[in-house]
Specification:
The complex is a heterodimer of chains A (130) and B (290).
Chain A: E1 5-10, E2 15-28, E3 31-36, E4 42-46, E5 49-55, E6 58-64, E7 67-71, E8 75-80, E9 83-85, H1 91-107, H2 111-128
Parallel strand pairs in A: 1-8
Antiparallel strand pairs in A: 1-2, 2-3, 2-5, 4-7, 5-6, 6-9, 7-8
Chain B: H1 4-60, H2 68-71, E1 78-84, H3 94-111, E2 115-121, H4 123-133, E3 137-141, H5 151-166, E4 172-180, E5 186-194, H6 203-206, E6 210-212, H7 215-289
Parallel strand pairs in B: 1-2, 1-4, 2-3
Antiparallel strand pairs in B: 4-5
Helix pairs in contact in B: 1-7, 3-4, 5-7
Classes of the chains: A alpha+beta (130), B alpha/beta (290).
Amino acid sequence: MAGTLQFDLVSPERRLASVVATEVNIPGADGDLTAMEGHAPTITTLRPGVLKVASAAGVKSYVVTGGFAEISATSVSVLAERAVPVEELNAALMDQLIADASEATAVAVDKDAADKAMADLVAMRSAAGF
Amino acid sequence: MPSLKDLKNKIASIKNTRKITKAMQMVSAAKLRRAQEAAEAARPYAERMNAVMAGLAASVGTSASAPRLLAGTGSDQVQLLVVMTSERGLAGGFNSNIVKLARAHANELMAKGKTVKILTVGKKGREQLRRDYSANMVGHVDMSEVKRVGYADAQGIARDVLARFEAGECDVVTIFYSRFQSVIAQIPTAQQIIPAIYEAGAASASALYDYEPSEEAILADLLPRGVATQFFTALLENGASEQGARMSAMDNATRNAGEMITKYTTIYNRSRQAAITTELIEIIAGAEAL
């Protein structure tokens, strides 16, 4: 049985989750990664995607749009720009996220990154089946 | 000497005013609690963000490839002042204090021969600054439609400011807002956000981290977010300060109205007595003359 780590998910507006988890699946900018107890201390940026947290109470998923994660041997802190539990996700919300992203793309300095984020969101929308 | 009827009207009108100020005070008290909660809820994010940024800034900041948001443009000629005030008045010295601080800064910078540009957030600051600095105003963010300050609002402002910075329209960005200390104390604060200044306290702890992608790439990604976070914190602090200032201002007004009512009631009663006495004297004098 793997050990546990402290998982915190905070958005600028509030703290969304603070649980003891066994593993956390993070959509990193360079690819997904799973953090478990004893992970090397890492800081990674996030791409829009689904964050999965496995704990004693089961697996909980959140849709995040960006931000970064701070991983240490005993804890994971995810600072997400926007984070929504998957259960609360619906087509309208997804559309809004995409609209926000396209607005950001229009004025973004780094067009590539913004376009990529946009593409991630659109892919997520179709994957979710809305 | 005002007539009895005048006095009566005056007392009635002051009573109405007192009712309004009392109601405003109670509304502010409720809003203040909500604003404080929002500020409280935003704190973990801002703290973490600052800690990580401080670590990154300490390790990358000295290299030549440091992002311009951190290292600056190498000049401080064009200064952008972002003055954040409220949309509504009747909040005591809240708006004036922020504007006063911004004005002092602007005058000092102009005396040094710098170019000053002013971006206002909130109607009240714009009204006050437009009188003296109409040539320096470069923009205004209207918050009157915003019921509850959200991160998206801060992002909007940050995007505007960053676009100006990237376009080379300004070298240094300073924000002015009121830091909330207590209901009776709000401190007008000036904070430089571009180039960013981070205390290097947490530097040693984060030096152990692996960075994915590179430190520079993360920093370039995080710096704009850091700016937005700082705007968000400032907006929330400002919101709490505004309600706090309004609450104490309205408390004072209510008390003042109470005092005025007592004063005018005394005058009213005295003159009523005097009128009765005069009438009695006239009647008695008339009876004695018979």
